[in-house]
Design a protein that fits this description.
The structure is a homodimer. Chain A is α+β, with helices and mostly antiparallel strands. Chain A has two domains: 87 residues, Winged helix-like DNA-binding domain superfamily/Winged helix DNA-binding domain (Arc Repressor Mutant, subunit A, Orthogonal Bundle); 60 residues, Ferric-uptake regulator, C-terminal dimerisarion domain (Dna Ligase, domain 1), CATH 3.30.1490. Chain A is 43% helix and 22% strand. In chain A, the strands form two sheets. Chain A has a three-stranded antiparallel sheet with strand order 1-3-2. A three-stranded mixed sheet of chain A has the order 5-4-6. In chain A, a hairpin with a 5-residue loop joins strand 2 and strand 3. In chain A, helix 3 packs across helix 4. Chain A is globular. The N and C termini of chain A lie far apart (46 Å). At the A-B interface, helix 5 and strand 6 of A face helix 5 and strand 6 of B. Strand 6 of chain A pairs antiparallel with strand 6 of chain B, so a sheet runs across the interface. Chain B binds a DNA duplex through helix 2 and helix 4.
DNA sequence: CTGATAATGATAATCATTTTCAATAATAAT
DNA sequence: ATTATTATTGAAAATGATTATCATTATCAG
């Protein structure tokens, strides 16, 4: 379903209107494999949507995150980064280069990981009475380029 | 080795002097099982060390982290939290309650986790030429109390 | 004991993110 | 289509955590 209202259905049930900034932000995130920050999204959109406000970017990102259409990440870089969460994108985690900030998605070991996570969630629920709703696994280190430097 | 210079040896090799604020901060962190923020540490220490500055807290936390004596965590709460990293404390990860912010340490599944992490690190190094130096696993959800509310 | 200089702490500055609020625009009802 | 309602926007100011500046102080080698 191409066109300006491609994502509209996902909003039904949420109290909100479909607007150009929302379309533009979601569209941008759906097209890139990068993990953009609010400022980067702002810089990108200014070109095709002069006049858009950084405040709106932040508000929209919050909203999109609540609807589950995007995911928010903190990679210890001082600013949050966002990632489109469509069905096309498989479950994955991240390798973060602590030197240059490069982020690599990986979805290897998905089965073993899922197994461990589910087992953990179950037993943690029993032992600590904790209801697991989300998990995060990430590796920090050096990317190929930064290992040379 | 009790006394004011208990931790001094760990600093050897690092260009720094052993001072009261450093002793006080490290001592506080070594005594608590909580994950304190800079401001919480500040509030705590003001009682036994009036005149200590928040700036010094931040600087010292950075230093202690670099020496590996403490660990820094971002639990998506807007402020970083710190944890003592002595040998007494086993390798563990965290359950974070998204409602009240409570943090629970757990060290269950250490073997399976270590196995998965090591296997992952090895294969990620091959496939992505990424040198893994650190990893983070955390579960977000609701603690017992917040499940009731 | 003393000098070199690392460390401190008050203050100001940064930087990401939020809040405020008047103006605007999306949608429902007419 | 037109209008009324009110969610959304964007500019500007506020916030809150963290960092930089810099004159003063304190550690520790000699």
């Amino acid at each position: 379903m191409p066109g300006p209202h491609r994502w509209r259905k996902r909003f039904e049930g949420h109290i909100c209107r479909w607007t150009m900034p929302r379309e533009a932000i979601l569209d941008l995130l759906s097209r890139t494999t990068k993990h953009l920050s609010a400022k980067e999204i702002y810089a990108n959109l200014l070109q095709i949507y002069p006049g858009i406000g950084l405040t709106t970017i932040y508000r929209t990102l919050d909203l999109l995150e609540k609807t589950g259409m995007i995911k928010k990440f903190n990679f210890r870089q001082g600013e949050n980064r966002y990632e489109f969460a469509g069905e096309q994108r498989p479950h994955h985690h991240h390798l973060i280069c602590t030197s240059c900030g490069k982020i690599i998605d990986y979805s290897d070991f998905a089965e073993e990981e899922l197994e461990l996570v589910e087992k953990s969630a179950k037993q943690l629920a029993e032992k600590y009475k904790f209801l697991v709703q989300d998990h995060n696994i990430e590796f920090y280190g050096l990317c190929q380029q930064c290992q040379k430097d």
